[in-house]
Amino acid sequence: MSAHHHHDHSHAHGGGQPSLLLPLLLIAGFAVVEAVGGWWTGSLALLSDAGHMVSDAFALALAWLGSWIARKPATRKHNFGLVRAEVIVALVNALLMLAVIGGIAYEAVQRIADPRPVQGGEVMLIAFIGMLVNIVVALMLHKGHSSLNSRAALLHVLGDLLGSVAAILAGAVIYFTGWMPIDPILSIFISVLILVSTLRLLGEVLHVLMEGVPLHLDIQAVEHAMSASDKVQGVHHLHIWSLSSEKTALSAHIVLENILDWHEVLNNLRHMLHERFNIEHVTLQPEIGNLHSDASANCWLTSTNHRHDHDDASDHLHGQPGHAH
């Protein structure tokens, strides 16, 4: 008896999601406009809002990149494809944004102590246009795909709406009252918005890199559902981890009473895991329950477990005999 494995490497055809590309271009383009406008008007609130829009653009770029890169086929060097590239880019994005936040906060403290002139009217105009851009992008994302990446990008954009409102408020206060400290004070508020979303992103990235169970899944619920499947006596050595923000992998040992039931059980489990938990990359190994009392069988199972943990990917890649796909 050999281990049986199933890996689903099917991917969508075409490039990245078109519904994400236009919002990405709009956000990235206006981020440049706000950055130039912030420098021209002397408004730190506009510059910090531009920084937030840059983070939005990165989030959208990651969502688009993830949908494009997911269709790349497995190779001998990368047997799961290149889906982890999305996670690495997200890590770089988070670290860069922490540096941006630190720079904005430092400058804000300096400006509170030594206020600088700001052109309030121009700040209101640019921030108002930015608010309209964010509303359009939010509506586009709401009507588009509902992947984890696009939903995270939508949260970024909604947060940036608050940043635009804060910049409008700063411009209005300066225009009507001339009170300059409002600009750095609101820039700190915007920076806090960026910090919250950045730390959340960083936590998710580190969770994926540490092979953590996906946050949207309960491993006990998955184990219970698998154990309740017809002709399954038990489930152990269950592992669930993220390949990317949208792709989840699972491996487990399935205890059966009769090995002749394996193909039926395998198909049932694959279908259930896909329909209930959206898990498509599945590796399952059968075991016969009544063999555990046999010493030689125990030795064989130990050997198989070790081989499963370390050689599963290469077995699938080279198509060794005895592995059902």
Topology summary:
Elements: H1 18-41, H2 44-69, E1 79-82, H3 84-113, H4 120-143, H5 148-177, H6 182-209, H7 219-227, E2 234-242, E3 248-256, H8 262-277, E4 281-288, H9 295-318
Parallel strand pairs: 3-4
Antiparallel strand pairs: 2-3
Helix pairs in contact: 1-2, 1-4, 2-3, 2-5, 2-6, 3-6, 4-5, 5-6
Describe the structure.
The chain is mainly alpha-helical and 325 residues long. The protein has helices at 18-41, 44-69, 84-113, 120-143, 148-177, 182-209, 219-227, 262-277, 295-318, and strands spanning 79-82, 234-242, 248-256, 281-288. A 3-stranded mixed sheet has the order 2-3-4, with helices on both faces. Helix 8 (262-277) links the parallel strand 3 (248-256) and strand 4 (281-288). The relative contact order is 0.15.
